[in-house]
């Protein structure tokens, strides 16, 4: 019984708090960490102002997302029917349509409900290229966005007029 008491006392004495205070090294280390935090914060606040999204940046981002979405979808279809302001795609026996609806570009599947893929546009135009499709969007901000989508071999394009 005496041996267990001795071991417990050694353990408690070994891990008790030291009341001597901070050493110079601890204080310098904490000051160094505090200085790095202050320097980081002072230099990062002006950077936040430069990266604020303007409407032009957001419009360009919407265009890039729309173009990448339609590229991904066009490259997996079986047939493409192209008219001046409408794009019909046949994929797995389903009809997917991209067209302008007011100031929006909408995507419909089998003539059902639609999802908006881009908004604030004046005009949407599709043109046939030698091995692909050209998408032209005239935005309400006056800027014209153009993108070429090149197709893998074997996807026929039919012009509807």
From TrEMBL:
Keyword Transmembrane: yes
Bilayer-crossing regions: 21-42
Domain of life (superkingdom): Bacteria
Coiled coil segments of this chain: none
A family per Pfam: ComGF
Signal peptide location: none
InterPro entries in UniProt: ComGF, N_methyl_site
Keyword field: Competence, Membrane, Transmembrane, Transmembrane helix
Compartment annotation: Cell surface
Protein name per UniProt: Competence type IV pilus minor pilin ComGF
């Amino acid at each position: 019984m005496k041996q267990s008491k001795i071991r417990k006392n050694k353990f408690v004495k070994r891990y008790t708090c030291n009341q001597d205070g901070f050493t110079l090294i601890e204080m310098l280390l904490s000051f160094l960490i505090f200085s790095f935090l202050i320097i980081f914060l002072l230099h990062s606040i002006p950077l936040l102002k430069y990266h604020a999204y303007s409407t032009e940046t957001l419009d360009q981002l919407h265009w890039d997302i729309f173009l990448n979405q339609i590229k991904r979808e066009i490259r997996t279809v079986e047939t493409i029917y192209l008219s001046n302001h409408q794009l019909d795609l046949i994929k797995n026996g389903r009809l997917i349509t991209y067209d302008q609806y007011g100031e929006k570009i909408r995507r419909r599947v089998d003539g059902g409900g639609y999802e908006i893929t881009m908004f604030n546009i004046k005009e949407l135009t599709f043109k046939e290229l030698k091995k692909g499709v050209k998408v032209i969007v005239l935005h309400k901000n006056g800027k014209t966005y153009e993108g070429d989508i090149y197709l893998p071999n074997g996807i026929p394009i039919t012009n509807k007029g």
